[in-house]
Task: structure prediction
Amino acid sequence: MAIISKNKELEQLKKENARLKAALSEAEFENQRLEIINSNLENQLAESNRELGENIEVLQSLKGEIENLVSNLQSYRK
Result:
């Protein structure tokens, strides 16, 4: 009777081991998927930061031009 019980216990442990291995495999796959998403988001953030920097430069240039135009208009009026 003890041998049958041990065999059942062994089979149950094998099934649990297989279930845990499958769960681990799924978790590893999900981890890889999230790493890819994170990498893509990091690339998008870097690109957005680059574009933002360019936009700031353009706006600063335009601000300078506007200030010059205002100054010229004020000088012209005098």
Summary: The helical segments are 2-77. The chain has a mean pLDDT of 95. The two ends are 113 Å apart (CA to CA). Residues 2-77 form the longest helix (76 residues).
